[in-house]
């Protein structure tokens, strides 16, 4: 079943929080909505199931038909940012979504159990939910939503607050679980890696509006404007006065390279000269801030940096790794 | 004298003194009924105060919190005036009956139950209702789940309500009148015995009162501990 919305508008205390003209998640598709904190991601998710407390207008449709909020909420299941579990066993928590749809306890437990397996928490089935770690609790919350086998699955930053290993494991297990399901999945996140791992398509949400929408592999690599570029990690800006091009170029700092003295840059490379401001070791990588005539730029490198602050140096970016970037589209705001 | 009181209490209970048992029975009947009614009124009110988004919610919450310290004598006076033969509800002839005592004690316990229920529900994760409804629960299902979530603090709320009414004497005396075999409860009996100089008897009543309060608290606390242990990390 597909879920879509038309002219969805959320206004909170006179401020427009969300304005989405059209968004559709098809049957069996996973759509990531990527945006920074405060962009309106959670608002969008709540508005889609008609649980947003602020004034909301617009239509939400299932398979193209407008539906009543009650029916909408029965068709959908959502996982919120922080797992909210009931004071009960893991199995009973996983079965809660089925229980609230009127299923008897024994049957609900039986149907929920395979989802504990799918999320690798079957061994915790009889544990009390209060005794779980954050990652385990999040797995229970996801299993609870999946067990409903709803037509629409909404995930609100389900990996927040998990350590890197737990998160990577959970993403892999969720990917496998979603492959078994035919639900339309909307994943809200601020992390582009989560989108890349899970979503077929990605929408970029900034200031309550969708700025870019397309296949995940394409969108993550082709920012439409400067704001989108920033969101997607193209944070190193190379303005025309440095590059001699007629348009602003952006690049990922990890794709920029300090040019060793004496080495000639590749013909296609963009080269910018400046002076070293500081070197910040970040564990595996080193961040190098370089002052240029048009302001500071950052480079992430894995090689040893021998230059001292104040030394002149050159930064090279291969032409394949730069993106042309028009200034952000000015969108009309209603506030 | 205290020892005397202890001995007399034991004798009163062991010999199955009819008067004492009827006083204990009435005490339990009145206080438990009042607690049940207060829960019936106070839990929905407290829930509304905790979750509602309506004008005057804070004022009402403050009023309920203030009501926790409501002097039983004031409630007794208020109910007496209402039920007085020439009063607005005088026609029912309820003054100096156990029913009047139940009414007064319900009014004493209801604000306590409401305020503590609101506090108990506000302890639950603020996203609890939203998450339940986002999973597809109806509002009623989600509310029931929320109350179940707060069942331990809610047990304590019931205890606090019972403790407040079983131990109060002002309202029971004023609206009940401490009539032998009709409206005499442990507290008013203890007051009467004391005023007559029958300290041993008064102590005996006091001890029985303590024993009842202890027994009920013990039962509930055991239930609470059992539940809490099973959810301990």
Defining key terms:
heterodimer, A: 2 domains, six-stranded mixed sheet, 10 helices, B: 233 residues, mainly alpha, 77% helix, globular
Overview of the structural elements:
- The complex is a heterodimer of chains A (335) and B (233).
- Chain A is built from 10 helices and 18 strands.
- With 335 residues, chain A is an alpha+beta fold.
- Chain A folds into 2 domains: 3-222, Rossmann fold (3-Layer(aba) Sandwich), CATH 3.40.50; 236-324, Nucleic acid-binding proteins (OB fold (Dihydrolipoamide Acetyltransferase, E2P)), CATH 2.40.50.
- In chain A, strands 6-7-8-3-9-10 form a 6-stranded mixed sheet, sandwiched between helices. Chain A has a 5-stranded antiparallel sheet with strand order 13-17-14-15-16, with no helix packed on it. Chain A has a 4-stranded antiparallel sheet with strand order 2-1-4-5, with helices on one face.
- In chain A, helix 3 packs parallel to helix 5.
- Chain B has helices at 2-14, 18-51, 57-67, 72-83, 98-123, 128-134, 139-149, 151-167, 170-176, 186-195, 199-230.
- In chain B, helix 8 (151-167) packs antiparallel against helix 11 (199-230).
- Chain B starts with a helix and ends with a helix.
- Chain B has 233 residues and is mainly α.
- Chain A binds chain B through residues 46, 49, 51, 53, 70, 73-74, 76-78, 80, 82, 84, 86-87, 96-97, 100-101, 128-131, 144-145, 148, 150, 154, and chain B through 53, 125, 127-128, 130-138, 141-142, 145, 148-149, 151, 230-233.
